[in-house]
Amino acid sequence: MANMAAEKVEMAVLKGEEAACAGLQLAILDPHVAPERIEAWKRQTPIFDRAYLFDRSGKLLYPAQVSEAEATTLAALRGEIAPGFWDRGGRRHVRLEEQVALVSVIQGSPLGRLLAILVRSEQGLRRDIIEKTLVGLEGQSVVAVLDGSDRVIYAARPLERSQHVLTVAFGEALPSWRLALYAPAGVSPRDAVRRQTVLFTAVLILLLGVIALGLGASYRLVRRESEMARLKSDFVANVSHDLKTPVALIRMFGETLEMNRVPNEATRREYYGVIARESERLTRRIDNVLDFSRIEGGRQRYEIARGHLEPVVHEAIEAFRYPLAQQGFKVHVEVEPDLPEVALDTEAIKQALANLVDNAMKYSDARRHIGVTARRVGGEVKIEISDEGIGIAAREHARIFEKFYRIGRSETQGRRGSGVGLALVKHIVEAHGGRVTVDSRPGEGSRFTIHLPVPAVP
Ligand code: ADP
Q1: CB within 6 Å of ligand 1 — which residues?
Q2: Is residue 192 part of a domain?
Q3: What is the pLDDT of residues 258-268, one digit of tens each?
Q4: What global pTM score does this model have?
């Protein structure tokens, strides 16, 4: 900090001198050197309090006269100026009595190149340059400027009882002056340094933390995106396969019927039945995908009105009566009598239940039992769909409700699905102000529960 402050002061001095020389150049543009113009320049240039102007022959052009002592000093100084300096138009600092003087060749006067010897004003320098530059630079420590004999030229605050911390030199523009840092009474420099170190370390740790967090977040985002891309491509393949089976069955039975290869009326009826049921299955699957796409696009609307759950549950199960029976499922449905009315979109709730029953069938092995119950518990109605199928490991419980997510290939092998069924169930139930939960253990079976709030009686 001290070095930085010293550099700033040095730069400001050089800039001030530069501006002063430019001003002087303007003041001597007259064919003869006009003292009043130089006086005016001096008033505007407080960093110098004396100025002498000589022409190349050594004639003093300003001021009109000098004391004998001054004349001797100036003559000695001029003697040191090499002819090359005149030609190059240089600028340099020299010691003059107790002060520093700037010796500069000023061009532009009709009298030719002139030599200016400008003696610095300590007061002007302090007020115009040092104070302005150092203000606001100090923190807890006090910055002071000292001359060659340690006299305080400038100090932002009184230095009594302050403890000297360090001193740095200025550059060539302020040859014998130095910049010193003091710690005010009660503030030990060691403590100040320690505090700074702790602060910088804390900021560094914070920055590293933020960078690490950012990297972690980006990594997670990229991983999630690539996982999503994979799931999406799986989804397309899964949906196509999911639709293929019912279409193949419809086609096969349709063609058999068309060719009149059916032995009797009973079989014919059975085939018509298969076609009707497979069409229903197809419709259900397509509805699932369409509704899911509407949800994704934020276009899905529900028509929610108060109604009874009982017929909705029965109708949803009824739609599966044939495949359940055909695949040897035993279904136990138990709807509590006098269930309170709930706010519901009948078709949407039926679709949610259909997805859960469909999954219960799909993910059952040898034990083919499905239970459906609806009862009131406290302020909600719970509809449970349970099976005794392959079950779901606890770590997957949350993920199965994510769109496109299907549990690892081995478990779902041979069981077609699009991976959006449970995401749809979740969306529907949440749109009703409810939630869906799962309770399941691998090898034991699963129980999905839809919780719907019972509205307050109007
Ligand atoms: P899918 O079309 O694959 O069935 P879902 O969103 O309906 O998609 O289900 C997501 C995943 O959750 C399924 O792939 C399956 O692994 C698992 N799952 C859903 N229901 C059950 C269940 N009753 N028993 C076991 N696993 C299930």
Answers
A1: 355, 359-360, 363, 387, 389-392, 400, 405-407, 411-412, 417-423, 446
A2: no
A3: 998 888 999 99
A4: 0.57
